[in-house]
Description:
Elements: E1 2-8, E2 11-18, E3 21-25, E4 27-30, H1 41-46, E5 52-55, H2 56-63, H3 65-70, H4 72-76, E6 82-85, H5 88-94, H6 101-110, E7 115-116, H7 129-149, E8 158-161, H8 167-180, E9 184-187, H9 191-195, H10 199-210, E10 219-221, H11 230-235, E11 240-243, H12 245-251, E12 254-257, E13 260-263, H13 275-279, H14 282-286, H15 290-318, H16 321-329, H17 333-337, H18 339-343, H19 346-352, E14 361-363, H20 372-382, E15 390-395, E16 415-421, E17 425-428, E18 440-442, H21 453-464, E19 470-472, H22 478-484
Parallel strand pairs: 4-11, 5-6, 6-7, 8-9, 9-10, 10-11, 14-18, 15-16, 15-19
Antiparallel strand pairs: 1-2, 2-3, 12-13, 16-17
Helix pairs in contact: 7-8, 8-10, 12-15, 15-16, 20-21
Amino acid sequence: MFEIIKSDLAGRIGRLHTNHGIVDTPAYIPVMHPVKQTISGDTLKKMKFQMIITNAYITMKRWGDEAIRRGIHDIVGFDGPIMTDSGGYQVLEYGDLDISPSQMAEFEMGIMTDIPIPLDKPTGFGLPHDTASSYVSRTLQACHDTIQSAKDNGQLWVGPIQGGEHQDLVKHSTKSLLEYGFQIMALGSPVEFMESYEYYKLASMIVQARSILPPSIPLHLFGAGHPITIPLAISLGCDTFDSASYMLYAKEGRYITQDGTRNLSEIRVFPCNCDVCTKYTPAELISTEQKERTDLLALHNLAAIRLEVDATRQAIYEGRLWEYTLKKARAHPRLFEAIRVLTGNNAILHVGTPRFKDKAIFLFDHTDQYRPEVVEFRRIISKFRTKKDTLYVLPEPQTKPAYLLKKYAKIPDDAQICIYNPYLGIIPLELSDMYPASHHLDARVSHTPDRYGTFGEALMAFLSNNSFTSIHYDHKDVFLAYFLKDVKCAKHHTTI
Length: 496
């Protein structure tokens, strides 16, 4: 059903198998309105979108039993995989609908959508815990009843995770849906978080869900349709995401860029080479009739979102998802706040990060001490043991691996030689060719010792596992002296 081809951090390149074909992930899934859509399914196919999402509730209200006779693919004019939202968005916006979860499930099975979603009760953002808890309970009951009545016809039912900012509810919802047997999960109610720029809370929700789910279960993110959120969402383990943002923004005259949106009237030169932007200048596009302008803007917005997904996918292939995500996070201060979630959850990032990579890693500032390859290296080195009782600690040289340098021959053979790097920690000379000790490039900046707590932790673990009676280092080395000044040995430290 879902196979993983390559991974980095918690991001995966995968293949989702459905009744109507394979979807390569990570994937953006455009919303197609079942009645008012102006961008055709054929156009979306030509733009390389493999799957779309449409609204089963609106389809039912507009087409009724005819939709069951024709099938959802004929109704919307798209012959690839289709996901259907059962009306959760309408519930969030307008309150309960005039239909039961069982009726909706029967309809979604009848129209043969590839990936149906049970009729849930979204928690949204800002609800008191008791109210949110009651919504989660209603959603879980509907999901339990739906999955119990589901037919074995190849449809992949989605378990909608609710709970909002209440992480205990998100955890409970995820665990319950997993026990029910859902094959795909979806994190509900993120739109209000994004509209409120609560990216940190959204990232925390994703981590809470992803940390419980096994790798074999894909995670969908509802309503994530802006490029600035895509790299972080993928890095934390989201495989697919949907949104109508491309059309909603277009109706407001908003042009999506890779770091935000701009009003079309503010743009003098298009920073894009899509079909729309190469055919029109901003002034020419503004002068078109409103409906045509809206559709053209929507086509550009689709291309901009697709470009970001492709760029993030390429970063996974190159093993540079960490670098790419941090770079993109600077698009907005509130988004940059969410990096704390990335740096504080190594457990979920470590699983998908290759132990060895084809390319050297880039290290820019203290944030990079938390990237999984670096954390793993420090963990391994902290367990290093030697019978030597004298330790020499020297700065990391430019030459890699360091043991090739002849200058270390001047140090006594019975001494343990280590080099150090603020990110990687202390590095025994014997292991200086181990990835990434010889496969990294640092920014040439000064390092403030108190911002590198992981270095101190790794150094103390290394020292506690060995019995050095003397430690030799340059006392003028401010960074190293900060961590070694209070270390007690049988003999005094000496200056190299």
